[in-house]
Fold:
Amino acid sequence: MQTAEARLKRIIVARLEEGDRLPDSIEILARRKKIHSALVLLLGGARDGTLVVGPSGRGKRRSVLTESFGKGREIMGIGTIFAGSSGPELHLHAAAGRGKSTLAGCGRTGLKVNIIIEAVIFEFGGLSARRALDPATGFHLLALAK
Structure:
């Protein structure tokens, strides 16, 4: 287990609007505001998206299971932003529901805002962390400085 301590640096509130894309919109905002590490809370509406809903198989060569949706859904999500090889990267998990149907998973494949998503970003200070390629899994995982 890796651990580190941080302090709250600032809180940024954003309104994402119809057609904005996740994770792109949050990553663009993070670059503009120079956010390197943060917690992100989201709620609102989403459409035209795909969530990663689980792995298929085991080991390094596993594939991912995805579920797509088109029509608008209510969404709530939580994620983290940490610096990656090309700038800030959002790792977002969300639940998206419509009627009696709910999907939950990772939003890395993207979705569009349906009317509005409110985002609250809690930026961390005093933390040295980044996403780095993990050779064992092939994923870009959180790495904390020692």
